[in-house]
Amino acid sequence: MKLKVCGMKFTENMQQVATLQPDYLGFIFYEKSKRNFEGIIPELPKSIKKTGVFVNEYKEIVISLVEEYGLEAVQLHGDESVEYITDLKEQLAERRALFIEENKHIKKKKNQHKISRNEIEIIKVFGIKDEFNFDVLKPYVEVVDYFLFDTKGKERGGNGTKFDWSVLKKYPFKKPFFLSGGIGLEDVEEVKKILKLNLPIYALDVNSKFESKPGVKKIEELEKFKKKCHFERNVMELRNLKF
């Protein structure tokens, strides 16, 4: 099981969170968000995947920001269609192939942000409250790398509340997913319970419950959360190999 810390905004705080070695750091590129990111991403450990979060954004802008910040994952939090995602993936693959060809004899310079040499992961978000029709996911299964289930609320994300996780017992696919929505330090026992179910949970996504203010993460609480959930990692890593 992986850990994603989303809603990063301030350089010093990013560096502090990075010392905890989460698997993903999320940067929200959405002007209406209190955690909208504008600035510089410092040099991060290679093990951390920089993830851009977008809401119904023009594909050209998504691609531009992927290249500018060297993003390794794209999280789509809007109403993006299968056609949108398919076209985005094709364009990202073309730009990546062109970049690799043009730079195959050039060593990467420190702090040089360019499109990742690895395939860009696509994460599609769906909001859940008390029930959910999983049939709507069928067209997306073959075109995304992961789903992400968040709490359906007034905001596109960062509502700080959990949805009814028991709904996920009806999840019918093998496609791995991120579990998100108001997960905090007080939810460790509930996290342990759901991890024991036969579900392809790939990662936990945390955000507002670990903040002192929007975009500023509480390092000590994140560290405690990671340690308390750590013992489930090996079990879930092995389980996910089935998928």
UniProtKB/TrEMBL annotation:
Keywords: Amino-acid biosynthesis, Aromatic amino acid biosynthesis, Isomerase, Tryptophan biosynthesis
Reaction(s) catalysed (UniProt annotation): N-(5-phospho-beta-D-ribosyl)anthranilate = 1-(2-carboxyphenylamino)-1-deoxy-D-ribulose 5-phosphate
EC numbers: 5.3.1.24
Residues in N-(5'phosphoribosyl) anthranilate isomerase (PRAI) domain copies: 4-105, 108-226
A GO molecular-function annotation: isomerase activity
Pathway in which this enzyme or protein is active: Amino-acid biosynthesis; L-tryptophan biosynthesis; L-tryptophan from chorismate: step 3/5
The keyword Amino-acid biosynthesis belongs to this UniProt entry's keyword annotation: yes
Matches recorded under InterPro entries: Aldolase_TIM, PRAI_dom, RibuloseP-bd_barrel, TrpF_fam
Top class in the EC scheme: isomerase
Family: Belongs to the TrpF family.
HAMAP family: PRAI
PANTHER family, A to Z: N-(5'-PHOSPHORIBOSYL)ANTHRANILATE ISOMERASE
Protein name (database record): N-(5'-phosphoribosyl)anthranilate isomerase
Taxonomic source organism: Polaribacter batillariae
Encoding gene (name): trpF
